[in-house]
Amino acid sequence: MKAIITGMNGTVAPFVYDELKKQNIDVVIWNREEVGIDSEKVVFNFIKETQPDLFFHIATGPVEWVEYIAKATNALGVKLLFTSTVMVFSEKGTGPYDIQSVPNSEEDYGRYKIECENIVREYNPNAVITRLGWQIGSKTGSNDMFSFLVKEQEENGFIEASSRWYPSCSFLEETAKTIVNVALEYKPDTYLVNSNKNYSFYDIVSHLKEKHRTDWEIHEITSFVRDDRMYDERIKIKELF
Q: How far is the C-alpha of 114 from the C-alpha of 196, rounded, in Å?
């Protein structure tokens, strides 16, 4: 079995790559310096020549690229998985969210992901979409929760964490396992991927402090109140703690 993956300079794709290799799936990395993204013909020919069974579109990029990928994978019979985000839901509202919840983000990134989701559904009805929460790694230098917390401590000398905010989040390794499993086993649909069923942001930060034995100074706040948890009983993912 063979897969194409985009987004290897990002946070999630390297973990998906590792999970694919663990499952003995050949992986071809889309290198934008070698393969263009602004030509429908180039995109189609690259996918056709590579002959993958799976396509993991994890990168951000022009919506036209998403359209070209969706069209090509549909025409060539390649299973497409597109990663979206909990940020498709408005930051002015609150959850928890399920598959019936209507995306309504006013923010640029959320609106971008909504548009991409719609394009994927329009041009490849056989695709699967996974909405992800905030990812948790264990090293700095990435766009994940751990890196954010380290930066907050370094810049401010403390970390503010609300005990009344319940985020969607998952450890990167568990997210990667789930993404690959959805691509291999699940029927076309949109799926919500979240490991956090019970914990506030304050709880999570406190746990990470203990886990990594850091000297973080955590200030509990209660002024930020929101529930961003996503629930999807179809998704089997290890709970956060």
A: 23
Query: What's the chain's average pLDDT?
Result: 97
**Peptide bond between residue 103 and the one before it cis (omega within 30 degrees of 0):** no
Instruction: Based on the fold, state whether residues 20 and 120 are members of the same structural domain.
Output: yes
Question: Are 118 and 19 within one domain?
Answer: yes
Q: How far apart are CA 113 and CA 109, in angstroms?
A: 6
Percent pLDDT > 90 in the chain is 97
Cα(70)–Cα(197) distance, rounded to whole angstroms? 33
Residues 83 and 13 in one domain: yes
State the Cα–Cα distance between residues 140 and 159, nearest whole angstrom.
16
Q: Is 128 helix (H, G, I), strand (E, B) or coil?
A: strand
Cα atoms in the Cβ-side hemisphere of radius 13 Å centred on 110? 14
State pTM to two decimals: 0.96
**95-142: pLDDT as tens digits:** 999 999 999 999 999 999 999 999 999 999 999 999 999 999 998 888
How many helices (H) does the chain have, and how many strands (E)? 7, 12
Nearest of 149, 217, 230 to residue 191 by alpha carbon: 230
The answer on 129 and 142 residing in a single domain is: no
**Number of domains into which the chain is organized:** 2
Question: Is the domain of 113 the same as that of 126?
Answer: yes
Local confidence band at 171 (pLDDT 50, 70, 90 cut-offs)? very high
3-state helix, strand, coil in the chain (%, to 5): 40, 20, 40
